[in-house]
Structures
1.
Amino acid sequence: MINLKSLSGVISAEYMKTKKTWAFWLSVFGGILIPAIMFLVVRSHPEIVSNRMSNMPWYLFLKYNWQSVASFLLPLYVVLVTSLVVQIEHKANAFKKMLTLPYSRASFYVSKILVILYYVALTHIIFIFAIAIFGLLLGALIPETMFLSKPIPWVMMIRQITKSFLASLGIVAIQYLLSIRFRNFIKPIGFGFAATIAGTIMQLGWKYVDYWPWALPAKVSPNIMQGASSEIFTMHEWISIGYFILFMSIGILYFSYRNIK
Amino acid sequence: MQTVIETHDLTFNFKGKKKAVDELSLKVPEGSIYGFLGPNGAGKSTTIRMLSGLLFQAQGTIELFGKNLKKSRKAALKNSAFMIEEPTIYKHLTGKQNLELLCKAGGYKKSRIDEVLRWVNLFEDRNRKAGNYSMGMKQRLGIAGALLPDPELFILDEPTNGLDPQGMYEIRELIVELNREQGKTIFISSHLLGEIEKMCTHVGIIHHGKGIFEGTIDELATMTKTAKIFRIETRDAKKAIDTLKDKWKGKVVEKTIAEFQPDSKANQQEIIQTLIKANIPLSQAYEVKNNLEELFMQVTEK
């Protein structure tokens, strides 16, 4: 179905198309924005990371950053970046051209989502690097925060973004299908926006919130008690992966047998 | 001569509407410039989309290079390139980057980029943003993209649509050049007879989804000359036909209407005179346009 050699070419082409576009800048600045704001917050109120549990400034800093993005900004970012990447194709009138090339339609469907996943991963990576840099900066500016005397918790941070990335997969697959289906980007973005807001409301106590894809990233918060002994992934990552597989399968079938007008 | 495109009874209907393409059979010989002619809404684009695999036909078969499109899609599309409606252009990239992109995605040789840019006369403008190109340049960039894999067959859907006369001329020159110098088979749709006449060797005409003519451009010319239909109304059409059968072959349309195909005005007058002499009363005599001619009125007017 998918030839690996041609896939690497397709991915590099995809990357060339999207670099320096809104999708790229949104991913870069989206990753930096909240750590930068949290930097300003801690700078004026250092006690929130140093007073209560004074030996864990990194954990608290990560937690505050995470809480600020998880329930609303991260799902919204995923909704936007998915639509932006697909919109590049709609605007260039590219589907018609691509689908007359001698490759299977399934391989195009897969290659495109890989680029979206690349950006979602990129913004996560930028997020933890931004946290590390702003943390070190805070440590230098306000020594009593103890950022400099404690090691940067890379393992915890990498585990956190891995969980978050996996918890975002369901949203990506659903939004991707909608973005391909509707040329007018207002439709998938509007839907995704509404679904994200619905997710934040559900957090207040709807019992099936665990099954709402747009609410899943908020469910994988960092937990200091989660040591090496407990399992790394909770049910939320698996639900998200389940949604991803389901909607990718629907998407591939839909895309493969659809008449392109 | 080998047949490059062959369709049998190709049919497509959009949901709930009448058939857009109705049992269309085409044969495109190798090395031809095949003009696919028909008024707007005749089913040209729908046909091309089926040829490219974008639409799936309701019935009938498509073969490209003898390979069935449904059964062996990759093999059928391997030597074909398409340009459907507007060309595919990423406006935020330069002309050259647009082609690099296609090379990466399609696995084509990068060395061809400069070559095809020269072919379509865009080499000078290769580093400008494609979004700033004129309509004609965009169209030529689209053609350049389609040329990258060095296809044998080139299918273009109304490539001169919306271009000014200069742009139309350039595209036409390019198509003829590709055919003569590189031996490419070119299938090109248009709603303008004038366009087709200027460059094509073969013509297929589609009207209301049905194929109504297919042949060389010379056959088309002969066909249109002899296509006039002359009708007379009389008491007994059969008697009139019998009277004239030595010189003209007639056909009974209705009991009182007979039809002939004289090839000049003088012949029409002779028919009338002969009938009057034979004492056959005429109530009317008139020319009717046949399908093809009626269609020509539509495709020749701009």
2.
Amino acid sequence: MLVALKRILKSSWVGFRRDGELALATVFILVIAASLVTALFLSREVSQFLISNLQEKMDISVYFKENATEEEVLNVKDELLKMSEIKEVKYVSENQALESFIERHKENQILMESLEEVGDSPFLASLNIKAWKTSQYGTISAFLEHPSFENLIEKVDYFQRKSVIERVFSLTAAISKTGILLSLAVVIVAVLVTFNTIRLAIYNSREEIKIQRLVGASNWFIRGPFLAQGAISGIAAALICLLAFALICWTAGPKLEFFFPDLSLFNVFTKNLGFIFSIQFLAGVGLGVISSLIAIRRYLKA
Amino acid sequence: MIKFQSVTKIYPAHAGALMIVALEDVSFELSSKEFVSIVGRSGAGKTTLLKLLLAEEKPTRGQIFFDGLDVPQLKPERLPQLRRKIGAVFQDYRLLPTKTAYENIAYIMEVIGSSDEEIARDVPEVLEIVGLENRANNFLAELSGGERQRVAIARSLIHRPEVILADEPTGNLDPYHTLDIIRLLLKIQEMGTTVILATHNKDIINRLGKRVITLEKGRVIRDEERGRFIL
């Protein structure tokens, strides 16, 4: 058994070396397949990062009437925190709102003069609410519209921001859906192209397979070197692909950071290195071996 | 040891090609350690007969037995065992083009599970017997027709099979090598191997003085113990 395994491995390595251009073509196709899968994973990571970044910036504010006491506002905050949709609620008092306004507009003479003219703080106490998902803002807003809050709440700015929130929501949903469809399409194309390349390579060897059968080789003794050769091509493809993506992420990362300052592509790559190599390895070796297994089947039938 | 019982092989008509009756009601028996020549014109059915014995083709009618096994009825997974008992020299060599002369011969030993030491000992020896010791590491494309034929012969006998099927084994050889190969086949037979030689080389048959089965249009027309080439 071990001797047979050793011979199969040796024969596949010799075959891989001798096949030359054909072996290179197979590796090249497997590199493309593994690259498509890797690119898909990285783009999913990047788009998820951008979506969560965008969602992070989304919030709604609920403004309380002038007569609402701090205690009442904090009660509403506690009620809100009981909701599973809520990620964070921040209380902003009248004074904090004023201070933050002054801080932001201290350079603007006209605004500062107008503020002095008004005298008292014209700002209302508010709660700044962040939900886990963009789609949850509607539910939160509906909760705040409950009649029990009518005497406390001046306005909820969900309706002013509704169109933006909905746009972000539909955009992120569309990106996710497109991502899934694209993934499926890419995987199907990668599988078909790889299978056909390997099928052609094995078709080239059909006479050889026939001879091997005629001289008494068992199906596994014939099949083994083809499968091992598929695996060798897959490993080579995975290594090439890993190196290529390391280079791409390293060189393209800083350029991407120029547009999205918080996004470091190289960090995403290194953080997921193990997983990326695993999917490249699985894509390369899996496709190589399974395609060989299917392609050789018809030549091993009696 | 080998028995053909009313064997008929018909290749059905297809896409404009007519039906071919390659063998018709062929019956004969071969005992162990026998040397038999199958003679006949091109298309007489010699190669088909050998293909049926190797289970490369199935007969349309009739039965073929090898060591008591019903060859056409063998399950695919049992075919390798049958084929390992037979050493075949094909008319078109059927060597593995991506392997060297040495590797082609060693492949059979690997298939039957010989050890590396046995392979390293026996392959050079058989290469020497067929006069190819200097061509061991050459690929088939680098060998002449005669050299390829000798590799095929070396491959057929390396694992000491029970039967050697030789389909025109001297077709591409010069008279000097032809004689050598025939002597070699006779020696192998003397050592206990059954040899089935399909040829249309009149000189060889007449010199051998062994059993001759003559085929004509797929039928056995003569089967003589010390036969001659008569067509």
